[in-house]
Amino acid sequence: MVINTNVDSNKTKEDFIKAVKGKHIPILTLDQKWHELFKFTPKSAEIKEIEEKLNELLKRQGFINNELKGLKKVKSDLMNEIVENMNESEGEASAKQAKNQELIKEINDKVDAYNDELLDIPALIKEANDELMIATMDIFYHKLFDNSKVIIEISEWIRKIRVELKNKIVSKKAKEIENQIAYTYMHNVFGHEVIDIFDLKYIGDEKSKELKDETVPQENITK
Q1: How many Cβ atoms sit within 10 Å of the Cβ of residue 53?
Q2: 3-class DSSP assignment, residue 15
Q3: Distance (Å, rounded) from C-alpha 135 to C-alpha 133?
Q4: What is the rounded CA–CA span in Å between residue 211 and residue 5?
Q5: For residues 59 and 52, is the Cβ–Cβ distance under 8 A?
Q6: Domain count of the fold of the chain
Q7: Residue 176 domain-assigned (yes or no)
Q8: Residue 96 lies in a domain
């Protein structure tokens, strides 16, 4: 994949966040595919910082939900105990009722505080998630740009090498034909006995055999 490396974007982080508003973006730190993006590309300090912030918000959200469930159970138990104490003597029941009601009030206060906090957390999670998305895109689009520049450079090198290789092959073939024709004429002019003597002096016996095998037949030259 090669992308246009000449694009000059002046868009800011806020521009991108506005552009993706309303689009479904999965919670990145919970998405295994997002983690796999970084198999061969290390996470930047910025990515790690935002990732930690997002994870802390998710943990806080989970903690509050668990606390609310627990408080609901405790409150239910206290309410049941109040009903049961109604059958006890007035003095004893009054003390237990007061204590239970005080505990219920504390629970209600905690529940209200947790619910208020819980209302804010989804917006904070989305904000951190969008921030993490922008930081991720920034890293990998820069990587795409850098890789594309290298791909273009290599493609141009390959193109030049192909032209050079084609020219070298043509030149090699021309020299081979030139050698074959010259060697054949030498045989025709001087005879094989004389040529055999000079073959041994200049090229050796084995190479001489190779040249003789490649020699262009006389009839091909004279045509």
Answers
A1: 17
A2: helix
A3: 5
A4: 54
A5: no
A6: 1
A7: no
A8: yes
Query: Hey, what are 168's tokens?
Result: 């070298």
Give the DSSP per-residue string, 37-56: TTSSSPPPHHHHHHHHHHHH
Domain hosting residue 27, numbered range: 13-143
Please report, to the nearest 10 degrees, the dihedral formed by the alpha carbons of residues 73, 76, 81, 84 taken in order.
-140
The pLDDT score that the predictor gives to residue 185 is 87
Counts of helices then strands in the chain (DSSP H, E): 7, 0
Tell me the average pLDDT across 126-155.
91
* Sequence-separated (6 or more) residues with CB below 8 Å from residue 132: 28, 29, 47, 50, 51, 54
C-beta separation of 62 from 30 below 8 A: no
Q: What is the mean pLDDT of residues 77-92?
A: 71
Q: Is residue 113 part of a domain?
A: yes
CA dist 41 and 143 (Å) reads 9
Among residues 191, 173, 184, which one has the least CA distance to residue 212?
Answer: 184
Residue 102 lies in a domain: yes
Over residues 64-87, the mean pLDDT reads 85
Instruction: List own/partner pairs for 95-100 with CB under 8 A and 24 or more apart.
Output: none
Token match 């970084």: residue?
A: 38
